[in-house]
């Protein structure tokens, strides 16, 4: 069966689903998103791209931005980053503060919120946030081959106003000496990177470098980012995602997931309804169907 | 470079290492093992097997047995097993009891001790332990194509005498209704399966079904066991193992590691010295060198 | 108003109450107790004793026995006991195992189950459990001035059969080297001491030495046991008990509470219905009324 | 022996001690305090006051202010306060954030930092912080009968600059809806109340209402504040303080302790060196000697 047929079937099956999960509602901009949307897009090794559903609609990539921030932070600091953040699954929710207290302010990995704040702080360095955000957008636009990728300012503003839990994490990190910038400054950059809007078509293209279909960073580094996505990319549901989908992936609370089939495909999927753990419900199911039908699982 | 050359070089490099970690010392039989030993063996898709170092010396496979117990338990119960044990990294040490208390006696995964005890209890069913252990040995001997695989009774006896922490886990599981047999019975089976002795040559052959080089169980099930090994196989160092080695793997406190390159190779390595987390120190390093030189990482 | 009138009124008020909490149901002997019972008894400094309600009915003293076991353990070991158990509120449930793991097998205090098992192990020493239990009964009978105090063997047997959580604690303590006897042996003594049956009349008399109305142990030791009862005697409801009642007290899951007004009175109360935290619901309320009406709070 | 003689002897013994603990060093103003100082002062039921040592030297009362803030908050809200903060020992360090996460932003008691921030937020209400601080100073000056009690602005400023851990707590509380004011506002009031400077002579007089020697608030409320001080006033060393000293007490990181012997005495002691748990080392020892020599323990 052709990939195009598979994607079309999956989009149809997903359209028929009624148990779509709950849309994130902590800020009005996300709460207002129509839960009935679904989009999927796949970039292949042969350079082609196949899509189905609402594949051109931009959505808030939220935590998927952590993958790109990690790539930039590693570019600036290299392996020094790993003295400030570890590479282990946390076994806890994405916004938990528990381990920070018992582990001296060193977050478990770059994808839980605490670790992503440290990563952004590292990628930011001593530059003004604007400069860092410009670099990030340039990276994304270049990776996606599309200039039309922007930050949604209203989303960034809402995140800042309601982000008390992230402020708690940032102040805790600062108290442990694991934040070089003032909490407000690092969080400013963090909230803006989370507010980047992209479509699955743009996102799948932007992820090609992780699938080895585009050379932007060293292969060794790509492998390691993929390993981190596999073990930590879905927080305390990472084990289940690996078990069911069998691909490295990173989810965002906007309902997007970027998944990587190394050497084969970069895949982006989007459906706004979330599971309890904050990952796209239909997005995960669509990816499970996709790997079952394509045999793309990295596990055999 | 040929695989045989690569393995020879790795064995030589490992022989020269002085920082070998600490041999497990909680029972005399493990404490007495010579720390200077190192063996590696690889079974390939073409049916050949290459080895280097002390590849024919039997060692106590310990927690590597959890992989085979899981295969048997899934064979008996199928997906019903997942109502008794989850599929998530714990973020805690292999013998931690913390999550059992806050998570109502449902262990995080089949590879932490609590989860492995549940898995063994499930694989055991209402049979006498002897019958289950006979089935397990038959499975291993058939998978390895070698009748000379046995349980080291002295090791099993020592484990039983000193295994108070595992008794604590088993009674806790029983208190939560997540153990069908009396704690002593299930632990009897558990301690005996951990005391199976194999060489890396035998172990690499026994793992071929997980690499898809031998058909013993359904491919879907193989994929899932590999996913679990990747996310949970090295306890609270699983993230680091994925990051550095890039293969599903399961370690044992006897110093062995079974690693799987799906479609390509089944790999067994052994060196008795352990890291703080209880995984073979040189074994991990040898696998890191091997995947770097062969390009077998599943992450690109 | 005379104490006799106060007690009579309280018994009447309690008889009218319908929200009596749930009777412990983990063993049949406790589950079968009639929840409508209530008894209270008070021994005064002048040597008199006043009682009301079902004051002569024996009930299972359960964890109240921990106070007397502590007195015996201190008698045998003196301050050496404090190297094996601490003197701090745990902030957790009575049967929690969490802190044992993070605090190297040293329980927080002698009244949480883990700490009581250590205390019993210390009081037991190298003697056969029978000998220790005989000493404990002798102590209680002498303190109460009543030979008719016994162990309910059926209760002890049921506790042993269902006590998997206590077995887990004991094995965990053993694994950390904080149990001198085999877990079964110490638990045998522990389950039997919990199964002692007494009436509130007997219990109030047995508690006189803690109120300074009878000299059995050094005054300094009495003070310290009272301090421990105040801070730890009601587990994770100890703060609330101090806040509402204002007296050192120790509860048991059989529905009894022993409370001490130093220099003034030894008080025993019993009503089988429990709160969520496992303390007698009406017992606590009766004590709150009593201290309000007598002004016996130690807090002013 | 007269109280005056006892205090003189204690001051002499303390002057001879070399193991004085470490002075708090997280802000320069506290780090600069001479560790060799010691002062003690006692107000008795007969209206007299006895002091010894550096009893007129002002020091930063820090967390002792939480007692007075609690009195004001209860005055404003009454028992409604208990829906926002509990009355249980936490079993954790004074600045821990762990329980906030697992207990939905409701702090364990008003004396751990999180609970004190909530209490201050409640006492503050919708007023400007200045107004609340003026009320607090008026209360303290009136209770102590001394107009010369002030806020040390330099200490308040330093606390604000370095108080990232308290900012983390406040934002976490805000995220859970348990802070009515913006975190900066409540913390402004909190840091200023902690920066109040008093001598032990002033502090002992200010504590008389808790000993029942002065009527400022209802007796029932006094009893409850004393109960809270006993169970929670020294954080995770509260059990030990009750065990050794036997009085309700509240410590501050400036080295002060206020202790209450209900009906008998209000006691203030000060020595800047701290234990690991952040309580005055010699202060605690001096109180232990005092209660042993006076027989003031509330436990018999």
Question: Layout of SSEs?
Answer:
The structure is a homotetramer of 300-residue chains.
Chain A: H1 3-15, E1 22-23, H2 28-31, E2 39-44, E3 49-53, E4 59-60, H3 65-77, H4 98-102, H5 113-124, H6 129-144, E5 150-151, H7 153-162, H8 164-175, H9 183-194, E6 196-198, H10 200-206, H11 219-232, H12 238-244, E7 249-251, E8 256-261, E9 265-270, E10 273-274, H13 281-294
Antiparallel strand pairs in A: 1-10, 2-3, 2-9, 4-6, 5-6, 7-8, 8-9
Structure, explained:
Four copies of one chain form a homotetramer. The first copy, chain A, has 300 residues and is α+β, with helices and mostly antiparallel strands. Chain A has two domains: 3-59 and 198-294, Beta-lactamase (3-Layer(aba) Sandwich), CATH 3.40.710.10; 63-196, Beta-lactamase. The first copy, chain A, has 13 helices and ten strands. In chain A, the strands form three sheets. The first copy, chain A, has a five-stranded antiparallel beta sheet with strand order 3-2-9-8-7, with helices on both faces. A three-stranded antiparallel beta sheet of chain A has the order 4-6-5. Chain A has a two-stranded antiparallel ribbon with strand order 1-10. In chain A, a hairpin with a 4-residue loop joins β2 and β3 (49-53). The radius of gyration of chain A is 18 Å and the shape is globular. The model of chain A has no long low-confidence stretch (mean pLDDT 97). Chains in contact: A-B, A-D, B-C, C-D. Chain A binds chain B through residues 86-92, 99, 108-109, 210-212, 219, 222-224, 226-228, 230-232, 236-240, 242-243, 246, 248, 260, 262-263, 297-300, and chain B through 86-92, 99, 108-109, 210-212, 219, 222-224, 226-228, 230-232, 236-240, 242-243, 246, 248, 260, 262-263, 297-300.
């Amino acid at each position: 069966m052709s990939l195009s047929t598979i994607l079309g079937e999956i989009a149809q099956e997903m359209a028929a689903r009624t148990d779509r999960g709950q849309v994130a509602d902590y800020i009005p901009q996300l709460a207002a998103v129509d839960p009935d949307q679904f989009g999927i897009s796949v970039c292949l090794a042969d350079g082609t791209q196949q899509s189905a559903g609402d594949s051109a609609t931009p959505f808030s990539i939220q935590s998927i931005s952590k993958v790109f921030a990690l790539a930039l932070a590693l570019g600036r600091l290299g392996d020094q980053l790993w003295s400030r953040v570890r590479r282990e699954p946390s076994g806890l929710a994405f916004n938990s503060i528990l381990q920070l207290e018992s582990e001296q302010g060193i977050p478990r990995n770059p994808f839980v919120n605490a670790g992503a704040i440290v990563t952004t702080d590292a990628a930011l360095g001593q530059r003004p946030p604007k400069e860092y955000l410009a670099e990030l957008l340039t990276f994304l636009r270049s990776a996606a081959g599309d200039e039309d990728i922007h930050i949604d300012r209203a989303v960034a503003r809402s995140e800042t106003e309601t982000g008390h839990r992230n402020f708690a994490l940032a102040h805790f990190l600062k108290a442990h000496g694991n934040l070089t910038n003032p909490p407000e400054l690092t969080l400013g950059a963090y909230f803006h990177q989370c507010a980047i809007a992209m479509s699955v078509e743009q996102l799948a293209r932007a992820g090609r470098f992780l699938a080895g279909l585009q050379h932007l960073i060293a292969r060794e580094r790509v492998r390691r980012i993929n390993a981190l996505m596999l073990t930590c990319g879905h927080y305390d549901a990472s084990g289940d995602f690996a078990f069911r989908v069998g691909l490295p992936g990173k989810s965002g609370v906007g309902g997007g997931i970027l998944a990587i089939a190394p050497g084969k495909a970069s895949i982006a999927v989007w459906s706004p309804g979330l599971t309890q753990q904050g990952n796209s419900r239909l997005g995960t199911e669509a990816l499970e169907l996709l790997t079952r039908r394509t045999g793309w699982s990295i596990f055999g």
